[in-house]
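Quiz preparation item.
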C-alpha cells in the first residue's frame, strides 16, 4: 500500500504532512549517521596518538571522492540535504588526514603534501567561483 501522495499525486494512507515529516526525520538521521561514520576512528587516533596501520593514500583517495561528489552536487544546484551526509563524511576524512600527518611515526615530506592541499583548494575555489564554462557541466 502506498504511504502518501508521493507517487503521482495518488492519495495514500497517510496525510502528506506526516509523510513529509517522516522524510525530514530520515534526512536528519542520515546526517547523524554521516557524523558517526569516521568518528570512532578519529576518537581512537586521538586517544592512542597513533595512526599505525592506516594508509595515507587510502585516506586521501576517500577524501577526494567525497570532495568530488560534493563539488558536483554543489555545482548542479542540488539541495544540501541530498548530499550533505557526504560533506560530513568528507570533513571527517580530512580530519583523519590531518591526524595522520600529526601522528605519523616516519618523516613526512611537507612539500608534496602542501602542494596537494594548495592544489585541491585552488581547484575548489575555481569551481565555486563560477568561472567554469556551463558547457563543461553535465
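Solution:
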Amino acid at each position: 500500500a502506498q504511504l502518501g501522495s508521493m507517487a503521482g499525486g495518488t492519495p495514500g494512507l497517510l496525510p502528506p504532512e506526516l509523510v513529509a515529516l517522516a522524510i525530514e526525520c530520515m534526512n536528519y538521521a542520515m546526517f547523524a549517521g554521516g557524523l558517526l561514520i569516521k568518528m570512532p576512528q578519529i576518537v581512537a587516533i586521538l586517544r592512542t596518538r597513533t595512526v599505525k596501520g592506516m594508509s595515507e593514500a587510502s585516506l586521501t583517495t576517500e577524501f577526494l571522492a567525497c570532495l568530488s561528489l560534493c563539488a558536483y552536487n554543489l555545482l548542479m544546484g542540488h539541495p544540501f540535504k541530498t548530499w550533505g551526509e557526504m560533506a560530513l563524511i568528507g570533513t571527517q576524512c580530512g580530519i583523519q588526514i590531518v591526524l595522520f600527518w600529526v601522528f605519523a611515526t616516519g618523516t613526512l615530506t611537507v612539500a608534496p603534501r602542501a602542494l596537494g592541499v594548495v592544489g585541491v583548494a585552488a581547484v575548489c575555489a575555481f569551481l565555486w567561483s563560477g568561472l567554469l564554462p556551463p558547457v563543461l557541466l553535465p
